[in-house]
Amino acid sequence: MRMGNINSGKRTYHVCEGFFKTWNSNRAYILGFTCADGNLYGRSLSWELTNKYRSNLELLNNFNNVMGSNYLIYRRDFSYRLRISNRTILKDINALGIVPNKKKILVFPRVKCNYLRHFLRGFLDGDGWIVNRVRGNESKEICVGFSNGSLNFMNVLIEKLRTNLSIDSFNLRCRKKMTKAGKVSKTYQLEFYAENANKILEFLYGGLSKNDLFLRRKYAKYLESKKFFEETKKTKMFGRKWIEIEDFYGKSMKRLLEESLVKDNIISKDIADKFGVSLSTIYRWLDKSNVRGFEKRGSVEWSKKILFSKEMVKNG
Q: Does the 2-235 domain belong in CATH 3.10.28.10?
């Protein structure tokens, strides 16, 4: 099934031939995506994505738009396929390292520093994953992963992440599986969790403009990961009760504390009663969230306030 506007008679296809000649965010993204999930077939540059997700069709339509292309997107039994046949496009992307049967021999392209995040976002959207999990103890975990058949490519990726994001912990694993032809296929994978995962996601997806390319379902995963990570940080700093109160009132706890102190003029003990926590917890929250100008935690002034709080609780 052909998708797109189809004119009667013979169709003339066109594409911006200079697309891969000048660096910009969209060129970097499509190059990264092609490293992961694109191929050169004879005289065509091709992307074939599963048709399980509408976002895949949207992305291929966006490829056509930014490349000034009117090539048709075909819906096959299990996939959407876009093929662009243009000698100049093929020559330029070949010079950037995209070659036929590139799976095991892919070389990391020379990407300009200020476009690296767009290249890596394209690569992750094409052949990576973002996983958000809620564990049995209700703790939330985020995971980001990259995968490729070229060991050389993955080793350069490690150096790029080390240099640009100050990540120094890597666990490059080799996954082996038997193909239908009876041969062993090797894939190399990198996975990151918690702080490192958040660093990568913010680098790739944070602050995108309306003109930047991204896969919609991966971006939705990024937004969920961002929320998970922020909640985890708050839980570690303030405790689970802080999160429960925020969810109940639909406001940030810092704002609730500020409103109670300034707008409603409630004293600390009454704030503690309002939120169902101890007075010492309220003082700790006020201190850590900088709602009031307490001295540093552990100082004489801070200690006096905590002792006073405990005394008030003790005396009812």
A: yes
